Amino acid sequence: MPGAVLTKAQKELKRLAFLNPAHPEFGYIRTYLDWLTDMPWQTATPNDTSITKAAKILDEDHYGLKKIKERIIEYLAVMKLREKEKKNKEEEKGTTILCFIGPPGVGKTSIGKSIARSLGRKFLRVSLGGVRDEAEIRGHRRTYVGAMPGRIIQSIKNIGVNNPVFMLDEIDKLGADFRGDPSAALLEALDPEQNNEFSDHYLEVPFDLSKVMFITTGNILDTIPPALRDRMEVIQFPGYTEDEKFHIAQQFLWKKELTANGLGKKPIQVTDGALREIIQRYTREAGVRELERMLANICRKMARKIAEGKKIKKEVSKEDVAKYLGPRKYSETLAEKKDEIGISTGLAYTQAGGDILFIEVALMPGKGNLLLTGKLGKVMQESAKAAFSYVRSRWQELKLPKDFYKDLDVHIHVPEGAISKDGPSAGAAISMALISAFTQKPTRREVGMTGEITLRGRILEIGGVKEKVLAAHRAGLKTVILPKDNKKDLEEIPQNVKRDIKFYFVSQMDEVVKVALKK
Ligand code: ADP
Questions:
Q1: CATH classification of 51-236 is 3.40.50.300, yes or no?
Q2: Mean pLDDT calculated for residue range 258-286
Q3: Of the options 2.60.40.10, 3.30.70.920, 1.10.8.60, 3.40.1280.10, the CATH number for the domain spanning 242-325
Q4: Is the CB of 106 under 6 A from ligand 1?
Q5: Is 425 a catalytic residue?
């Protein structure tokens, strides 16, 4: 124990010596002393920051993610050099915190585990989702009945070393209310300037967290408290293309699931056709979680057969997939669907990564009212209103009667109704659906679009281009319309995706209409 802690512990021990064991205080002090003696004040796993080894391990465990791996290696290199400097000087400071942002199943956790493995350190993981109470991070004061240290100190005690790789999940879902602001407490734990003296309310003495390597993860960046975001180095995981998923499944997931289901010694193969079938027809996601689950499902069914003494084939072919997994979940891709009047294909950026959404417009007899449904947020509602006004103001160009909307009510709906959506980037798609409905001409389904719209019909820059384009590619769209100012973002998009999709960069709604509306 550090000197100050020892003094504190001895003082408490003295108090304990004077107390009758039947006294209620006795138990409290005893537990407190247990905590003090159990904390890994000095225990650490030996430091082993070989950069070449780390790079090798990251490659061994993960397919692709080239840029992400590079940034992590750079980060580790900086950490290593700084540690060397620290040895010379007395001052102790941690490095900045890594923050992995991306949809579920893109490998955030597993990269974290690999980092721990490559550094030879222990790994632990705590979820912050729904944490609203400051005490969950920093503990309750000892005067409180049933007081306990917070999650950070508890986890450090359980893992038994003071330098683990510590992953804090769902940092974007941290709450705050009258019980205090957990983000403030978290900041203290994460901030390298002050976390060498992290104070837990229960522990009362500071604990040095500066040797812990914190990594935070979340699905979206927007909801992370700004003060926290500033302290972190954000690395974005955009999601995988179909090809990447295929290779991940082939090289990693299949072997992993075979082993996990007791089939590790059996040389069962899965054909390329079968993998593609599963990816295309049984999953629709940015990451590979669903895919992993499907493979697990197949392995389980094979394991059962073997356990029942039945024979199984040495190979899972495309035709076998339906036998194991049942009928296709996604029987047709978007491109195979019919074009319709009053429906446009929008590209969205959600917690689950990029996604496509259909904007539906229905016209019915009425008085020119606008109805919006589909759990739209404020910004999206306003964006829909702007789109409506824009379309109304363009009646001449669209060859519509002047008061075409007077005897109509307009209903805009965005499925799926139970999922809340927000943001201005659906403006172009909403306008398109409206124009299609009013002009009674169908839109081309396989044209995905995204872009904010102004009242004058200008199309403005939006975010999440890579995620949206990957989602469009997954859904089999052939054409994507993007704002002109987003042209620069195309650089990040994998070559094979660019090959399959035709891009239009527009600055005006008229250009969108030209591409997406059927003659
Ligand atoms: P996240 O934490 O982002 O939700 P996980 O790390 O839990 O996702 O990843 C889900 C599964 O997919 C894990 O089994 C992981 O090993 C696997 N996986 C994800 N990306 C890759 C990749 N690039 N290479 C190999 N396996 C991967």
A1: yes
A2: 89
A3: 1.10.8.60
A4: yes
A5: yes
